[in-house]
Amino acid sequence: MTETTCVEYTDAACATLLYHPPDTADPVAPPDPAALARHALAVLRLAPPDLRLTPPPDPGDPNTLVNTPTHLWLPVGTPLAPQTSSATDRGLTVAVEARLDHVTLTTDDAPAASTVCTPADLLTGPPASPFDPPACGHVWRTTSADRPGGRFHLTVTYHWGITWTGGGRTGTLTTTTTATHDVAVRERPVTLRPDP
Fold first, then answer.
1. Distance, CA of 196 to CA of 180 (rounded, Å)
2. Per DSSP, which regions of 8-130 are E strands?
C-alpha cells in the first residue's frame, strides 16, 4: 500500500511524499520514525474547520455586492482542537498532532489578492455588522458578471503545523488543505433623493 500526502516544506513549494512500507522480512532496515510520521499524516485526512461566509455565496441569486465585505467566521462552539493520528511498524509507533496555524484567502478578481488570517482573527459567530471591515475576509471591488460563469473564486487554504514523536525522536512537518467557493458579485444601483 502506498500513502500520499502533500507536505509543504517551504512557503513556495509543496511536495507529494510517498510512504512505502518496508519489507517486514528484511531484518536490516529498521523502521524510520520520520517516514512513519509522514504515513500517519497521510492517513489522517485532515478535516478543515467549518468556516462560514457572510454573506453566503449564492450564484443562483447573487447577494454579494461590490465594495461590501465578505466575512469568514466559525460557528459558535466550533473547536479548533488538534487532530491526531499514529502509525506503527514492527513495534515502533509514531504519533502526529496537527494544529491549524493560519488560513490564506486567495481571490482571482483584479487585482488578485491574498489575505492571511490566524485562528485568533476568525470570528466565533457571524459578524455583528456585515458592513464592518472583516478581521478575516475580502472585499470585491468589481462585479463578476463578465467572468466565466459570472463568478469569482475564493480559495481558502488551511495551513497546518504538524508535530510528531516516536522512537525517541521528534520532528515537525507542515501540510495544507484547500477549499474553493464560487462567489457571484453584483452591483446594486442606489437612487439618492434629496432630503425634503
1. 48
2. 15-19, 52-54, 64-65, 69-74, 83-89, 92-107, 113-117, 123-124
Cis peptide bond upstream of 111, omega within 30: yes
Task: Sort residue 162 into left (φ over 0), alpha (ψ -120 to 50) or beta.
Answer: beta
Name the nearest CA neighbour of 101 among 162, 32, 58, 47: 162
Distance of CA 68 to the CA centre of its chain: 23
The pTM for the full model equals 0.79
Q: Pull the grid cell for residue 135.
A: 478581521
DSSP of 80-94: ---EEEEEEETTEEE
| 114-124 tens-digit pLDDT | 899 999 998 89
Per-residue cell: 83: 487532530
- For residue 167, give the amino acid letter: G
Identify the helix (H) or strand (E) that includes residue 181.
strand 169-183
Cis peptide before 119 (omega within 30 of 0): no
Q: Which residues of 5-17 are buried (b: 16+ CB within 10 A; e: fewer)?
A: bebbeeeeeeeeb
| Torsion sign across C-alpha atoms 39, 118, 103, 76 | positive
Three-state DSSP at 31 gives coil
Q: Decide: helix, strand or coil at residue 24.
A: coil
- pLDDT digit string, tens, across residues 100-114: 999 999 998 877 668
